[in-house]
Amino acid sequence: MFLLATASSDTKGSPNLRFLGIGETCDLGDLYMSLLAEGHEVRISVSEEMAQGTLAGICPKARDWRGSLDWVREAGADGIILFEAVSQGLGALQDSLRAAGFNVIGGSAYGDRLENDRFYAQNLLAELGFPAGHVWRFDSAESAANFVSRHPDRYVMKYDGGAASSPNYIGQFADGRDVAALLRARSRQETTTSSAFILMAFIDGVEMGVGAYFDGERFLQPACLDWEHKRFFAGDLGELTGEMGTIVTFERTKRFFDLTLNKMEQPLRDHGHVGYVNLNTIVNEEGIWPLEFTSRFGYPGFAILAPLQNLGWGELFAAMVARSSRHFPTLSGFCAGVVLTTPPFPYSRKEVPEAVGLPVLIDPSLEPRHVHYGEVGLDAGELVTSGLYGWTLVVTGDGSEIADARDAAYRNVRRVVVPNGRYRLDIGERLIGGDFARLERMGLFDSVSAAEAY
């Protein structure tokens, strides 16, 4: 059954806005559907040919976004352009469109550099007071392998330039011999040695992110905290994917935000960035160790945050472009998101030829606010899989405690049937099993009384 997403709150008082979405693979499908349900006008432009079926028959398409600029301009202050990605010079394009008078939410050239040039971002973070001296940049796998041989240790290898997660590797041996062996193998593969990459000293701790919306001058409050699950299989086994599931909250977040992401307010303001920004970190008893930025809407993070945002996307975006409010209403508690994928995920159909068009069946009693469409479209009026990767959809559940949100999400995901669908069964288990209590002991969350006052 086809279910149209609905707004998360009453939006009758919000203006009718006009949105043009620009992206490569239509990553923000759930957001576009919510905007339509709120009564706004939406057009989307998808550049990747293999992604043309995503939201087909659901959302109006613009084959070339340039032809819709006048349509956006006609709406004046109520016209907004949304960008999805951080590649192919899109950040610089956003800056130029802002200079031409358009309202643009998504990122900036500066945001692109923060995300794609990890070594630059680490140096900037060191200047802001974060730990330094544990990151090294290399232009060849051979030189990196020689470095590991001279300095045996456990390392994490990450590629720069917007490369997919799958080539990255987290070393397992204390002397780094597995990283050195992988680097030597890749030095013989010309296609993987042309991209710059970094080695980071492995840091044991709890991985967590902090994110907030930036309106060009300041961060909107509250920020969110998130705990991602990036490996393909339960137990953190298999390939590094974009994301398989996440736990998020807006509750008791200000202390950690002030210690981390809030330090970026001035640099982002100086460079005219407008959009969502996330900083992923490792936290242990020795400190907070930044890993990387996401300087755009994170998928599936934006969809998992939506059930806790107590206003529609249109209202939020209108407040961002008008810079009319520093706060927006949120719900307490947690939301858990589970990514349901289909083949060829975690690869693309360019690498693994896999058919699309599998039926997507959703129990009609499932609340639409907990179903977030990814790569799906309509075929003969039926909802089917589409797109390049197999990011089929995200299912969420919320609750006052992490365990409540997790249980609700899994009850919901069992009410969605897609042939050959796969998803992890352990989202949130490590948090429930001790990681969240460890973070509490470190004093990284607001006290309950401070959170209530805020």
Task: Indicate the CATH topology of the largest domain.
Answer: D-amino Acid Aminotransferase, Chain A, domain 1
Total helical segments: 15
Number of strands: 20
CATH class of the largest domain: Alpha Beta
Instruction: Look at the structure and name the CATH superfamily of the largest domain.
Output: ATP-grasp fold, B domain
Please outline the helices and strands.
Layout: E1 18-23, H1 29-37, E2 41-46, H2 69-74, E3 79-83, H3 90-99, E4 103-105, H4 109-116, H5 118-127, E5 135-138, H6 141-150, E6 155-159, E7 169-170, H7 177-187, H8 190-193, E8 197-201, E9 206-214, E10 224-233, E11 237-249, H9 254-259, H10 265-270, E12 275-284, E13 287-294, H11 301-305, H12 313-322, E14 334-341, E15 361-362, E16 371-373, E17 376-379, E18 382-385, E19 391-399, H13 402-413, E20 416-417, H14 429-441, H15 448-453
Parallel strand pairs: 1-2, 1-3, 3-4
Antiparallel strand pairs: 5-8, 6-7, 6-8, 9-10, 9-12, 10-11, 11-14, 12-13, 14-19, 15-20, 16-19, 17-18
Helix pairs in contact: 3-4, 6-7
Description:
With 454 residues, this protein is an alpha+beta fold. The protein has 2 domains: 18-113 and 205-437, ATP-grasp fold, B domain (D-amino Acid Aminotransferase, Chain A, domain 1), CATH 3.30.470.20; 135-201, Dna Ligase, domain 1 (2-Layer Sandwich), CATH 3.30.1490. The chain is 28% helix and 26% strand. The chain has helices at 29-37, 69-74, 90-99, 109-116, 118-127, 141-150, 177-187, 190-193, 254-259, 265-270, 301-305, 313-322, 402-413, 429-441, 448-453, and strands spanning 18-23, 41-46, 79-83, 103-105, 135-138, 155-159, 169-170, 197-201, 206-214, 224-233, 237-249, 275-284, 287-294, 334-341, 361-362, 371-373, 376-379, 382-385, 391-399, 416-417. Helix 3 (90-99) links the parallel strand 3 and strand 4. Helix 3 runs antiparallel to helix 4 and helix 6 (141-150) packs antiparallel against helix 7. The protein starts with 17 loop residues before the first strand and ends with a helix.
